[in-house]
Amino acid sequence: MSAQFIASLIIMLVMLHVFLGSISYLILLERKVASWIQHRLGPNRTGLPYGAFIPGLPKTLWGLGQPIADAIKNFLKEDFIAPGADRILFILAPGLALIPALVGWIIVPFGGYLHLNGTNLLMGGAPLNIGIIFVLATGSLAVYGVVLGGFASNNKYSFLGGMRATAQMVSYEIPLGMTILTIILMYGTARADYLIEFQAGGVWNIIYQPVLAMMFYICGLAECNRAPFDLAECEQELVGGFHTEYSSMKFALFFMGEYFHMITSAAIFSLLFLGGWDIIPFVKLLPAMGEQTTLVWGIIAVLLKIGVFCGKITFLIFLAMVIRWSLPRFRFDQLMRLAWQSLIPISLMMLIMTGMVVFFGLNRWWLLPGNFLVVGIVYVLMPYLPKGPAVNRRVPLEGSRFCPPVAEA
Amino acid sequence: MFTTLAAGTDSESLAQVAPFLYLIFAAITILSAWMIVISQNIVRMAMYLLFTLGGVAGLYFLMSAEFLAAIQLIVYAGGTLILIVFGVMLTSKNPFIRLQTMLWERCVAIGLGLLLAMLMVIALANTPIKQTGTEAVAQNHDIHTLAITMLSKYLVPFEVAAVLLLVVMIGAAYMARRRA
Prior knowledge:
The structure holds two protein chains of two kinds. Chain A is 59% helix and 2% strand. By secondary structure, chain A is mostly helical. In chain A, helix 5 runs antiparallel to helix 6 and helix 6 runs parallel beside helix 13. Chain A is built from 14 helices and two strands. The N and C termini of chain A lie far apart (84 Å).
C-alpha cells in the first residue's frame, strides 16, 4: 500500500459520504428555492429534534429535519413491483441509474496536492491519465437506468419517458464531448489535476471561453435530465415518466442518481471552467503543486481547497435549481433542434477556432473574441442553411388565437 | 510541464490488487456472456451484453489501457448497444419479445464456437508471452503517445476508418431522408 493509495481511499470515502448525505439536503434546498421563487414558505415544520425544544433556536429549525423524515418514509414505504413488469430489469434499473453517477467523480482532484516525504500526493480520487475522458465514458452509461426502468415497468408512459431520455442523452453527449475536447486541445492534457493547475492563480477558462462554458452547462443540464430538459419525467404529459411505477427506495435511488449526476457535472464544470479549487481569478491565494512550505499549512490548504470546490459545486447546483423554477420545459422537437442545429455546429466551429489559435501559437486571449466571432458566424449563416420541411407547426384550430372563427371573418 | 512532479498511475498498489480484480471482472464477463446465450428475452440479452462490455472495459483498466477502456465504454456500451436497445424497443410490437432457436441453429452455433475456441487456443500456444512490469505498460499507454502514433505511423488506417464512418453516415442520412 503506497501513500497515494491510502490518500485516494480516504478522500474517496469521505467525499462519497459527504455527497450521499448532502443529496437529501440538496432536495430540501430545491424545495426551499422553489418556494422562494413561487413566493410561498416551503417545508418549515419538521425540525431536527422532532418536537423537543432547544433554547435559543426556533422549535421547527427551518424544516431541517425534513430530509431525515423523507428518508425514513422512503425506507418504510411498500416496495411494489407491478405484476406485468419484467422483474429482473425492474430491480436492476435503479442500480444502473445510480452506479455510473457514483463512479464518475473519482477523477476530480478536490484537494489539489499535498507534499509529503518528497512526493506529491494527489488529494483526490484516481490520477487517471485519461482524466475527463473517463467522465464521458461513465456518463454514456447513465442512460441505461432510465431506459431499462422505463421498459421494465411495462407502462406506456414509462416507456415513452425512457425513449425520450435515450434520444435526448445520445444527442447531448455529442456537444458535451466536443466542449471537453476543446478544453483538452487548449491545454494539451486530459488530466483533471493539470487542467486545474493551468488555471489556478491565473485566468479561469470561463473568462477565455464564456460561450463554451455556457454550452457545457446547457449540455450538463440535459445530461442530468434537469429542467428545462426534463422531458423524460414531465409530470404533465407522462405522469412521472420512467419512474411512474417505482416506489420506496427504488424511486429514491433514481432521485439520488439524478442529484449525483448534478454533483458530478457541477464538479466537472468547475474544474474545466472555474479553476477548480482556486478562490479568485488573477490572484494567487492557495499554493499550487509543489509550492507547499510546511505540512500543517499544506493540510490547511488542502482542506480549504476541498471547501472551495464544494462551495462552487453548491453554487452551480443552486443555479440549476433557479433555472428549473424559472424556465418552461422545451417541446421535444425544440429540444432536438437545439442539440442538432445549434449546439453541435457551434461546438464544432469552436473546436476548429480553438485548434487554429493553438496551431498558430496565438495568445489565449484571442479565444475570447473568437468565441463571439463563432456565434456571430453561425447567426449570420443560419438563415442560408437548407431547411427541412416544417413539422410540428402550430395547428390552426378553428377558434384558437392563430385562426379566428370562420363566422367572424 | 508537470512531468517531474506528477503522481502517475499507482502501479505498485495496482499490482497488489490486480489478481483479485481480474477474477471479478473475468467472472462478470464470462457469466454475463453465458447469460446472453441462454436468455430468450432480447432486452435482457442487451443488458447482459452491457455487463459483458463493462467487464471487458474493467479488464482493459487493469492492463493500464485506460484510453482503450474509456473508448470501449463510450463506443460500445454507450453508443452501439443503446442503439440496439432503441431499435428493438421501437420495432417490436410485443414489448417482451422472445427468441426461439431451432435445433440446427444450435448445432451450427456450437460448431462455430468450438472452431473459434480451437483457433484461439492454437494462437495462444504459438505466441510467446513476455512478462513485463506494469510500469512499462503504463508508460506506453499514455494518450499523448497514442495520439502521436495514430496521427503519424498509423495515419492511413486512421483516415480509412474515418472515411468508412463518413460513408456509413451519408448512407444512413440517405436512407432516413423524407421521400417526396
